[in-house]
Specification:
Blueprint lengths: L2 E5 L5 H11 L4 E4 L4 H4 L1 H4 L9 E4 L2 E4 L1 H11 L14 H23 L9 H4 L4 H14 L10 H15 L7 H11 L2 H12 L6
Length: 206
């Protein structure tokens, strides 16, 4: 198998699995348990951070979820997950993919850890504040069905995944625009397949 995903169903690996399902390419899943298994020397040879997800594509190792999503979009162009390299849409594609991986994730992580940024330090942290980030996202996802207009892309996959996580855990307020956008993106067959596979891999309830 030339594609192997190291993951856990209770992790950002769910995003990587969705991306893999969108490509339509066959892949193998290796579920790692939290703790010693992820910190074992064999796995740390793949990712010295000792964390998942990790993608192994015929010996090419990719870590960091946004990087995995972007890599898969380029490695399997027939899936249509990214605009062609020289398309004018490539700019907004990168913009929103990394807005989700940067400002949105940083702001929501701080919120989940009860980190309050003083107003005078908002420029220092880069994302300003969570309210500003969410206002920008709301304006964007209500302007067109998807981030690039009428066409779904890997940037939508990544943004919708983070919004869904934030809503599920009460980190992000349930604005109707977010709920509509998440419903629109996660209704895709690949998203449904990925969710079913990860749910089946969840440990049994105590």
């Amino acid at each position: 198998m030339s594609l192997v995903l190291y993951t856990n169903p209770m992790s950002r690996g769910r995003i990587a699995r969705w991306a893999l399902e969108e490509t339509g390419a066959p892949y193998e899943t290796r579920i790692l348990q939290w703790g010693a298994e992820m910190k074992a020397p064999q796995f740390c040879d793949l990712n010295p951070m000792g964390k998942i997800p990790v993608l192994d594509h015929a010996g090419t190792i990719v870590t960091e979820t946004a990087a995995i999503v972007a890599y898969l979009a380029d490695a399997f162009p027939e899936a249509g997950l990214a605009p062609p390299v020289h398309s004018p849409l490539r700019g907004p594609y990168y913009r929103w993919l990394f807005f989700a991986a940067g400002p949105l994730e940083a702001a929501t992580t701080d919120k989940s850890l009860n980190v309050d940024i003083p107003p005078e330090k908002c420029a220092f942290v880069g994302y300003g504040n969570l309210a500003l980030v969410l206002d920008v996202v709301e304006k964007t996802v209500t302007a067109t069905p998807y981030l690039l207009g009428e066409t779904f892309s890997a940037a939508d996959l990544y943004l919708a995944s983070h919004l869904g996580f934030g809503l599920r855990f009460g980190i992000i307020e349930p604005r109707p625009a977010f709920q509509d956008y998440i419903a629109r993106t996660t209704s895709r067959p690949a998203a449904q397949r990925a969710n079913t596979l990860d749910d089946a891999a969840m440990p049994p309830a105590p």
